[in-house]
Amino acid sequence: MLTTFKATAKKLPDGLQVETNARGFKIIMDEPEDLGGTDTAMNPVEAVLCALGACQTIVASAFAPAHDFTFEEFHVELEGDLDPDGFMGLADVRNGFQEIRFVMHFKTNEPREKVESFAKFIENTCPVGDCLSNGVKLVMSGVAID
Fold it and tell me: What are the residue ranges spanned by the domains of the chain?
């Protein structure tokens, strides 16, 4: 059974600031000054990196007991390569990330083989990772003039 998640994004008056909202939770996004923003918040592609890291962290925490896996601390470092000339129309290159790299950090007494196996499970289970790895069909279902 499919579950539908919903969100909105609304332009704010200052620079390129955008207020996003899902289930009443809000995140403000912006762009750095050199890309025309006011540099008051992370930009959307940084939010993608954060979403991936958060998803991996949630999967690690939620599924550790079922895998008889324990850790004291967990965090993910992420970085992605993007050429802004693509979305600025200055070069014929991809608009989005060309590659995203991440390192999962575990503070644990588990043996390396078990840690690597659990890390692979996290990577294969994370819904955001799945969206990024396999792509998602984007459908503009209309244009509204208010």
Answer: 1-41, 43-134
The rounded radius of gyration (Å) of the Cα atoms in the chain is 18
> Any alpha helices (H) in 90-134, and if so which ranges?
112-125, 127-134
Tell me the CB-side half-sphere exposure of residue 145, using CA atoms within 13 A. 0
Whether the predicted pLDDT of 124 surpasses 90 = yes
Tokens describing residue 128: 């955001």
Q: Whole-model pTM?
A: 0.94
Q: 44-63 vs 112-125: helix axis angle to the nearest 10?
A: 120
Tell me whether residue 124 is exposed, middle or buried, using C-beta atoms within 10 angstroms of its C-beta: 0 to 12, 13 to 18, 19 or more. Answer: exposed
CATH superfamily of 43-134: K homology (KH) domain (3.30.300.20)
